[in-house]
């Protein structure tokens, strides 16, 4: 770092006691002489050869080597001699005589005499000067500078190659160039940081100095370290900025290519395997179980599609983020990708939704068809069982249940038609684009199946309706049969009640002829009522016979109802005839008695009718005898009219009247007895 009086640089060569390698020294000199600029070299060098610790032959060899290494640049060589001078050596070789041959001047000088040729401020402490110099510090920073220079130069070449490759050629060549030289051999950030630290050191004037003492200020045109570093840093920053832009463009292009690749993966799968899965799934099944199996298969297909739809959502978000970034050169391509992806995904999602709705409608259709089939089976089973009710009420209940089941079947068939029509509408709306092929044949099979199910259910329902009509007629006839049997039994009961009333309440024979005639007339009306009841019962029983023949069954009650009716009617007839005879006898008795009792005793013709009294008495006795005799029925049973007290009361009234008649008879006889005596 020191300078001689000509402003030439001072080069110091310290020699030591060990053997000095001339090759290494030559290389070192070449390196050191390459550091200054050409302008500095033109001013020449002053070389200080410190031979105080070396031998003369080594010093001489070094001086001669300078002739071969730097003959033109060296202007003065100062050989610092030891205290004990090589006198004999000098006699054999005088440097001043060899000046013309060497090309520079060589002087032998003591260390303390160097100040004659070089200013003390330009000499280090080793030579009695004041120049502060730390060789290890200079060496370390020089190594840093050399490393930075080497790395930055190499990095600049690499970055220039990368950047220039990205600016030239076709897009394919550009991508190939970037692919081959994309990553630099060293980290640009690290090199830039090293350069900035080195520049900071140089700017603080510490490159050839130390932190303490007097530091000198090297001239820029002498040591070009600082300008070189600044120039390299500027070049690095420029190329690195371009390189970052290239990386950004490359990253954007890579991201765009990745998005394109993923978009095509999604599109290719949805239009390929995804669509193929839907093409193979066109049926609706022929039962609930088959439809459920198809639904399960469709859910598996939806699950596979869901994974790709998730990728679609992620890609859509990435594309939206790139669109928001506002790179106009990629907007058209990104929007085209987004549109293509959305169209394919929405179309596939629509197909999946259509298929799901179709299968759900088919499942509902088959469910309604199964319920209707079970209802028809239940109704048919009910119709196939023979009717054997206990009474008319149970028949009415069964008929009501039958009507309810038929109504439920009607509602079920109506629901099946609605579900079937809805399913047919969905199938008819299915266009060829839905699965990418013509689905007319497959749809025809589905349509034929749906229509076949509805027609079959309609036929089954019609058969059941016909059977219900027959069963309804039969059950109504049975209701009528039960009603006739019940009414016939009721007629028997009524006739029995009339018989009972005849025996228990129709007792009086009347107090006179007029009253008895009234009773006789009432009795005839009473008999007419009984006759009507008997005829009504006979008609009902005849109707039951006709109904039984129509129903082809044996009546369960008419068989014993008719004998009962005839038996009660026979008993009533016998009892009625006895009642009539008694009343007619009573009328004859009362009429004859009243006639005799009402005749005047002074009438002479009365005495000629004594025999009438005997007839009246005979009738009265006959009537009294009938009152004590029971009514005897064909089965041998007997019944009395009224209670014994009732009969006694009636008999007492007849006896009193007979007494009156007898008294009248005696009165008529007394005049006869008086007349003969007189």
Automatic annotation (TrEMBL):
InterPro entries given in the database record: CRAL-TRIO_dom, Spectrin_SESTD1
Recorded superkingdom:
Eukaryota
Report a single Gene Ontology molecular function. Answer: phosphatidylinositol-3-phosphate binding
Keywords, A to Z, come to: Repeat
Annotated coiled-coil positions are: none
Segments forming domain CRAL-TRIO: 1-135
Q: By its UniProt entry, which PANTHER family does this protein fall under? A: SEC14 DOMAIN AND SPECTRIN REPEAT-CONTAINING PROTEIN 1
Q: What is the name of the protein in this document?
A: SESD1 protein
Q: Which organism is it from?
A: Crotophaga sulcirostris
Phylogenetic placement of the source organism: Eukaryota, Metazoa, Chordata, Craniata, Vertebrata
Gene that encodes the chain: Sestd1
């Amino acid at each position: 770092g020191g300078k001689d009086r000509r402003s030439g640089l001072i080069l110091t060569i310290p020699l030591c006691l060990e053997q000095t390698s001339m090759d290494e020294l030559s290389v070192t000199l070449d390196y050191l002489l390459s550091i200054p600029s050409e302008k500095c070299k033109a001013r020449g060098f002053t070389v200080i050869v410190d031979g105080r610790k070396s031998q003369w032959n080594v010093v001489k060899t070094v001086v001669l080597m300078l002739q071969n290494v730097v003959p033109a640049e060296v202007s003065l060589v100062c050989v610092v001699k030891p205290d004990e001078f090589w006198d004999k050596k000098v006699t054999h070789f005088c440097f001043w005589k060899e000046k013309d041959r060497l090309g520079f001047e060589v002087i032998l000088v003591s260390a303390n005499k160097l100040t004659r040729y070089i200013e003390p401020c330009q000499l280090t402490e080793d030579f009695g000067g004041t120049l502060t110099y730390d060789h290890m510090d200079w060496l370390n920073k020089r190594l840093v500078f050399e490393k930075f220079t080497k790395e930055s130069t190499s990095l600049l070449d690499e970055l220039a190659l990368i950047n220039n490759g990205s600016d030239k050629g076709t897009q394919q060549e550009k991508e190939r160039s970037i692919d081959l030289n994309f990553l630099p051999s060293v980290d640009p950030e690290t090199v830039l940081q090293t350069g900035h630290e080195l520049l900071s050191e140089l700017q603080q004037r510490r490159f050839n100095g130390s932190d303490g003492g007097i530091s000198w200020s090297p001239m820029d045109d002498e040591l070009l370290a600082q300008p070189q570093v600044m120039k390299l840093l500027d070049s690095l920053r420029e190329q690195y900025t371009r390189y970052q832009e290239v990386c950004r463009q490359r990253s954007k292009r890579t991201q765009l290519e990745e998005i394109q690749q993923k978009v095509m993966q999604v599109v290719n799968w949805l239009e390929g395997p995804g669509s193929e899965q839907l093409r193979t799934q066109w049926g609706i099944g022929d039962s609930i179980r088959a439809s459920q199996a198809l639904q399960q298969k469709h859910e598996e297909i939806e699950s596979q599609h869901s994974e790709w739809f998730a990728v679609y959502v992620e890609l859509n978000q990435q594309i939206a983020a790139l669109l928001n970034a506002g790179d106009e050169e990629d907007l058209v391509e990104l929007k085209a990708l987004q549109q293509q992806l959305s169209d394919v995904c929405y179309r596939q999602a629509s197909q999946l939704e259509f298929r799901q709705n179709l299968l759900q409608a088919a499942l509902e259709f088959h469910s309604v068809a199964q319920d209707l089939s079970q209802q028809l089976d239940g109704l048919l089973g009910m119709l196939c069982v023979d009717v054997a009710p206990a009474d008319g009420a149970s028949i009415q209940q069964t008929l009501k249940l039958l009507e309810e089941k038929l109504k439920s079947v009607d509602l079920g068939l109506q629901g099946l038609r609605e579900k079937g029509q809805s399913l047919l509408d969905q199938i008819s709306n299915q266009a060829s684009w839905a699965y990418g092929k013509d689905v007319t044949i497959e749809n025809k099979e589905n349509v034929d199946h749906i229509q076949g199910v509805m027609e079959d259910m309609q036929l089954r329902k019609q058969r059941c309706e016909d059977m219900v009509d027959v069963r309804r007629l039969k059950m109504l006839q049975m209701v009528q049969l039960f009603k006739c049997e019940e009414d016939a039994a009721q007629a028997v009961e009524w006739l029995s009640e009339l018989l009972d009333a005849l025996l228990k309440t129709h007792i009086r024979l009347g107090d006179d002829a007029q009253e008895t005639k009234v009773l006789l007339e009432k009795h005839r009306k009473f008999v007419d009522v009984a006759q009507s009841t008997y005829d009504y019962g006979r008609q009902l029983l005849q109707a039951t016979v006709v109904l039984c023949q129509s129903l082809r069954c044996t009546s369960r009650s008419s068989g014993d109802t008719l004998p009962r009716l005839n038996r009660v009617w026979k008993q009533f007839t016998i009892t009625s005839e006895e009642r009539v005879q008694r009343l007619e006898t009573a009328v004859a008795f009362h009429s004859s008695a009243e006639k005799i009792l009402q005749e005047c005793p002074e009438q002479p013709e009365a005495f000629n009718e004594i025999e009438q009294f005997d007839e009246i008495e005979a009738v009265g006795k006959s009537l009294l005898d009938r009152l004590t005799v029971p009514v005897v029925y064909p089965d041998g049973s007997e019944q009395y009219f009224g209670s014994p007290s009732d009969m006694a009361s009636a008999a007492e009234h007849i006896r009193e009247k007979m007494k009156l008649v007898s008294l009248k008879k005696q009165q008529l006889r007394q005049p006869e007895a008086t007349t003969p005596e007189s």
